[in-house]
Amino acid sequence: MRVRLRTNAHPMRNFNPERKTTAGKLNTASLPPASQTSLRRQCSHGAILACHMYIELIKTVHTATVTFQRAITELLEDMGLEDENTIAVTLVPRKGGEARNHTPSHAANNDYIAKYQLATSRMRALDNDPNNPLGFKQQANIHCAYCNGAYKVGGKELQVHFSWLFFPFHRWYLYFYERILGSLINDPTFAFPYWNWDHPKGICLPAMFDHERTFLYDEKRNQSPRIGTIIDLGHFGDEVQTTQLQMITNNLTLMYHQMVTNAPCPLPFFGVPYPLGTDPSPGMGTIENIPHTPVHIWTGDSPRQPHGDNMGIFYSADLDPIFYCHHANVDRMWNEWKAIGGKRRDLSHEDWLNSGFFFL
Ligand SMILES: [Cu+2]
Asked: Its function (predicted)?
């Protein structure tokens, strides 16, 4: 099946257009210059301000009641947000389709997790026929094919990372995957949870993926950052020794810069243009670079696997079910970014709009 961007569409996540944003409150002028490396090492007053602004930005768009963790409580208190225990996303049905409510993974209930486990187990069972295109491994192969040189255009590798193809390719990829899961449990409303790593409450490895011998668990995953470890959204291999509170602060600061200061208009956010037949990998957008890539590296099993399998390298990333939960949140950033306002809107270039991908 081939899909084209122009077919109107972003069926996966349409956020309620009536929702209010806090765009008017943002004051980028008061922030220090965006230096990701220095921000990771220190927490200035400006960084705290950026965190606060990012919290302001996201707290208008979530609903879910969750349990506070200690460090998170401290941070929220520090920011005067200690009563803020409801976050959420409101979704509207796509045209002619059923509503799909995407839940942050930390707020998913047991019934939902059981459903997700069941759908994934059935998808894994389809691997009994290695040629079944709906099977877990064949689905993973789709992503592998688009980033490990399976397709060539004009003699050049076709690559869906490191350019403006990153967001649209992954959105369509998740869209079909989600529909397959839903069809396997006869629930057309089934929707991925999203790993809410940009919020203090979702900042650890989601618990539903960390139960050994279940269908959402993956053996090839880094064993040290498991439940309770706060993710480092700037992780490129080095362990950062710091407090939990500092790590959360760093993360939210990075998010603020990648969503707001470093991406005031479309190209810095989506990535460098990649027209047909030109060299692949011209350059990443802000979110693809950080935190998308660090989350992959942080989750992959680099201590035990030579290439950081599964999540830490393209050919195997999708063999870890958490890939989809991670990318559901990456995809969410696309909508969140546009909701900030200003010049933040979709690209209008013909080359981008006419991009197409095959999924079967
Ligand atoms: Cu990815």
From this structure: Catalyzes the oxidation of mono- and o-diphenols to o-diquinones.
Query: Which of 10, 52, 106, 292 does the annotation list as catalytic?
Result: 292
143 flagged as catalytic: yes
329 CA → ligand 1 middle, Å:
10
What's the pTM value of the predicted model, to 2 decimals? 0.78
Query: Which one is catalytic: 170, 235, 257, 326?
Result: 170
Closest to 228 (Cα-Cα) out of 243, 212, 206, 246? 206
pLDDT at 80: 52
Q: What is the mean pLDDT of residues 66-81?
A: 48
All structural domains of the chain with their residue ranges: 2-358
pLDDT at 15 over 70: no
170 is a catalytic site residue:
yes
Structure tokens at 296: 């992959």
The contacts of residue 338 (CB under 8 Å, 6+ apart) are: 344, 345, 346
Q: How far is the CA of 29 from the centre of ligand 1 (A)?
A: 32
- Confidence check: pLDDT of 142 > 80: yes
| Amino acid in the structure at residue 230 | I
Q: How many angstroms does the Cα of residue 2 sit away from the middle of ligand 1?
A: 21
What pLDDT, on a 0 to 100 scale, did the predictor assign at position 151? 83
